[in-house]
Amino acid sequence: MLPKVSVVIPTHNRAPFVSEAVLSVLSQSFKDFELIVIDDGSHDHTFKSLSSHRDHIVYHYQKNQGVSAARNKGISLSKGEWICFLDSDDLWTPQKLEVQFHATQSTGFLASYTDEIWYRKNKRVNPKIKHEKHSGFIFEKCLPLCIISPSSVMLHKSIFENVGYFDERLPACEDYDLWLRIATQYPFLLVRKPLIIKRNGLGKQLSSQYWGLDRFRVSTLEKLLREVHLTSMQRKLVWNELKKKSNILMQGSFKRKKILQGFQYYRKSIGASLKLTFH
């Protein structure tokens, strides 16, 4: 019998943490799942750290291609009707799958996410107001920044067939890109319970490897305008956010004396302003 849920953990050189992430999944009160670990070219002792769990997981090793390629590979190997992700730095509470699965089943939503507990350098911290989460059609709420953690989502597999997978061309903000594409068409159910533990500051993490993450968000917004069918209101919202982010990047570029880059973002801001004026 096929599992109801497929859980995908992408990992790269996170041996001290990935076994803890795996254990948090194997300890779930809801048992109708498969667990797929995609080892994205690790050269530490990741393989050895997972040896005690080998009978309970699907382990796949591939050359290093990035987190999007790893998640996409996990989706392609999955057999479940529902897809969940868990970053190898994060943990799930024991009732995560049970609570979220029953919430989606009882409401009919095809996409859901949960509240979170945050730790930074092993100290609990509170999310800021800008990270507030919402239910329903949340496209507008997703534009300023990524309010959805990959570790918190549960998505029906049909969503990927409709909107596509993670964009492997993006070195960062790949989750921001996918959530926006999903949110153009689907409402999200927010399960208002903190069912995941996000741990930041544990060595090298993807979000800390790049300055100015809004650069990748601007690229995503431009791609949305080019490639995704948007309503007239959604297009206005995207142009408005593109203008805001381009202005911020323009000012930052000039401050760093990156004049050419500053003018590039100036042109993007002006272009967005013109679209807002004449449409």
Question: Explain this structure to me?
Answer:
The radius of gyration is 19 Å and the shape is globular. The protein has 2 domains: 5-208, Spore Coat Polysaccharide Biosynthesis Protein SpsA, Chain A, CATH 3.90.550.10; 214-278. The chain is built from 10 helices and 9 strands. Strands 1, 2, 3, 4, 5, 6, 7, 8 and 9 form a 9-stranded mixed β-sheet that branches. Helix 7 (174-183) packs parallel to helix 8 (214-227) and helix 8 (214-227) runs antiparallel to helix 9 (232-255). The termini are far apart. With 279 residues, it is of the alpha/beta class. The chain has helices spanning 15-26, 46-49, 67-77, 96-107, 139-142, 157-163, 174-183, 214-227, 232-255, 259-278, and strands at residues 5-11, 33-40, 58-62, 82-85, 91-92, 111-120, 123-125, 154-156, 189-200.
Architecture of the largest domain, CATH level 2? Answer: Alpha-Beta Complex
Just give the CATH class of the largest domain.
Alpha Beta
Which fold name fills CATH's third level, the topology of the largest domain?
Spore Coat Polysaccharide Biosynthesis Protein SpsA, Chain A
Number of strands: 9
Note poorly predicted spans.
none
What would you give as the CATH superfamily of the largest domain?
Spore Coat Polysaccharide Biosynthesis Protein SpsA, Chain A
Distance between the termini: 53 Å
| SSE order | EHEHEHEEHEEHEHHEHHH
Strand fraction: 15-25%
Mean pLDDT value: 94
Structural class: alpha/beta
Largest sheet, in brief, is: 9 strands, mixed
* Shape category: globular
* Number of individual domains: 2
Give the number of helices: 10
Quaternary structure: single chain
